[in-house]
Design brief:
The chain is mostly helical. It has a single domain, classed as de novo design (two linked rop proteins). It is built from four helices and no strands. Helix 2 runs antiparallel to helix 3 and helix 3 runs antiparallel to helix 4. The N and C termini lie far apart (37 Å).
Length: 96
């Protein structure tokens, strides 16, 4: 997506934001898995959840600004929402 936005659409601001927040989700999940304590695990997953929510926001802006098609938005946004649901379920389990 980043390459498409920067090369095809000449968009450099929102694309960097969605790249940063989107890749941060996976990086924080990886850190959670390698965490040294349960508290560290859930802290990192909560950060991942925040980054996923931020990614949703950037995707919404990209769509509303006309940089991505409705089809692309629906597909990527759906994946992002599914990931958020998974992270919410895991982090909710900790709060019980």
């Amino acid at each position: 997506m980043y390459q498409f936005l920067t090369v095809e659409k000449h968009e450099t601001i929102l694309s960097k934001q969605v790249l940063r927040s989107g890749t941060s989700i996976g990086a924080n999940v990886r850190e959670a898995i390698r965490g040294q304590s349960s508290a560290d695990f859930y802290s990192r997953l909560n950060i991942s959840l925040k980054e996923a929510s931020e990614t949703e926001y950037w995707l919404e802006l990209l769509y509303e600004s006309g940089y991505i098609s409705k089809e692309a938005f629906n597909s990527i946004y759906s994946d992002c929402q599914e990931l958020i649901s998974i992270l919410v379920a895991i982090t909710k389990h900790n709060s019980q």
